[in-house]
C-alpha cells in the first residue's frame, strides 16, 4: 500500500456518501460530476486497499470497513479544520475583530477547536492568537492588548475576571530506558523534588503548578536539569533520555501511545488542574470575545448556555 495519506477531498466525499446514501448526491454537494466522484472514491479504495462502498441501483452504502474509515475520516477532518482555524488566527497580525493570547497547552489542544466553532457561526470574524506562557497572557490582558486570554496557571492574578473552560492533569514522564520506567512503587513528592527535572521557563503554568504542589507538601524543588520554552522541546528531550519532566497528560498523549515516553505514577498527589479564560475585570468580554467564551464553556460542559443567550456562570 502507498505511504501517501488520503487527501481531505476524498475523505469528505466518503463522509458525504455516508450522510446522503448516494454517490450522486454526495458529488452534487461537492460540486463535482458523478464520474469524477466515482473515480476519486475508487482511488481512495485502492490507496487504502479496502472496499469502502457497495453501489447498486438503490444507492450507495458503506461497507463495514467503510464505516470504520468514515469514522476516522471525520476525526481527521475535524483536526484539519482546527489546524486551519488556528493557523488563520496566528496569521492575523493585521486589524482584527478579536485578539487572543493563550498558554501553550491550551493553544495546542483546545483553543483552535473553539476558534473553528466561532468561525462556523461567525465566518467574518477575524481572529489573531498569540501563543506564550500564562504569565505573559495575564500581562497582555492587564495591559488591554488582548480581549480574552487562556491560562493554565494555578492562580489568576488580581484584577482579572476568570472562569474555568477546561481541565487536565499533569503527568511525570521519562524515557523507556530511565530507571523510573521500571520501578514498582510510585515516586513520592519528596523524591520528585530532589530530582533535577526538565522544566518550562519561569511564567509557565505547568511549571508554576508543580512548584506550588511541591511547596504545599513542604519540599523545595532541586535546581532544574534543563529549562526549555516549548512543550515540544521538553517532550523531545525526555524521549531522548535527557531526564524526567512534568507535562500536561494531553500534551504527551501521542508519545505515551507510541511508547516514546513512559508515565510514572506519583503517590497520592493530585495532579489535576483547571484551565481558565481570563479578561480585564473592568472590560467584560463582549461581541466575538463573549461568543468565543461561551463556545469554550459549552465544550467543557460547564454551562448549557447557547452562545448569544443567557449568562454563563463566571467567577471573579
UniProtKB/TrEMBL annotation:
Keywords: DNA-binding, Transcription, Transcription regulation. It holds the Pfam family LysR_substrate. Residues 6-63 form the HTH lysR-type domain. InterPro entries: LysR_HTH_N, LysR_subst-bd, WH-like_DNA-bd_sf, WH_DNA-bd_sf. PROSITE patterns: HTH_LYSR. The keyword Transcription regulation applies. Belongs to the LysR transcriptional regulatory family. This is LysR family transcriptional regulator. It comes from Actinacidiphila acididurans.
Amino acid at each position: 500500500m502507498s505511504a501517501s495519506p488520503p487527501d481531505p477531498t476524498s475523505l469528505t466525499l466518503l463522509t458525504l456518501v455516508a450522510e446522503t446514501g448516494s454517490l450522486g448526491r454526495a458529488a452534487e454537494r461537492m460540486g463535482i460530476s458523478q464520474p469524477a466522484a466515482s473515480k476519486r472514491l475508487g482511488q481512495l479504495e485502492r490507496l487504502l486497499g479496502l472496499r469502502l462502498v457497495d453501489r447498486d441501483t438503490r444507492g450507495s452504502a458503506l461497507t463495514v470497513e467503510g464505516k470504520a474509515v468514515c469514522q476516522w475520516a471525520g476525526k481527521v477532518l475535524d483536526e484539519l479544520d482546527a489546524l486551519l482555524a488556528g493557523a488563520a488566527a496566528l496569521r492575523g497580525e493585521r486589524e482584527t475583530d478579536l485578539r487572543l493570547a493563550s498558554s501553550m497547552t491550551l493553544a495546542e489542544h483546545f483553543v483552535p477547536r473553539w476558534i473553528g466553532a466561532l468561525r462556523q457561526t461567525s465566518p467574518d470574524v477575524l481572529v489573531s492568537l498569540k501563543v506564550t506562557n500564562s504569565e505573559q497572557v495575564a500581562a497582555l490582558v492587564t495591559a488591554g492588548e488582548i480581549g480574552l486570554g487562556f491560562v493554565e496557571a494555578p492562580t489568576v492574578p488580581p484584577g482579572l475576571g476568570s472562569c474555568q473552560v477546561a481541565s487536565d492533569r499533569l503527568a511525570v514522564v521519562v524515557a523507556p530506558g530511565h530507571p523510573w520506567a521500571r520501578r514498582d512503587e510510585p515516586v513520592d513528592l519528596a523524591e520528585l523534588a530532589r530530582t533535577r527535572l526538565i522544566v518550562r521557563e519561569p511564567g509557565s503554568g505547568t511549571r508554576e503548578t508543580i512548584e506550588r504542589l511541591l511547596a504545599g507538601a513542604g519540599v523545595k524543588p532541586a535546581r532544574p536539569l534543563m529549562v526549555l520554552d516549548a512543550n515540544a522541546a521538553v517532550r523531545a528531550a525526555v524521549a531522548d533520555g535527557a531526564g524526567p519532566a512534568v507535562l500536561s497528560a494531553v500534551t504527551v498523549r501521542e508519545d505515551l501511545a507510541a511508547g516514546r515516553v513512559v508515565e510514572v505514577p506519583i503517590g497520592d498527589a493530585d495532579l489535576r488542574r483547571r484551565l481558565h479564560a481570563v479578561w480585564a475585570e473592568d472590560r467584560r468580554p463582549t461581541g466575538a470575545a463573549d461568543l468565543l467564551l461561551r463556545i469554550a464553556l459549552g465544550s467543557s460542559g460547564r454551562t448549557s448556555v447557547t452562545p448569544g443567550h443567557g449568562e454563563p456562570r463566571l467567577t471573579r
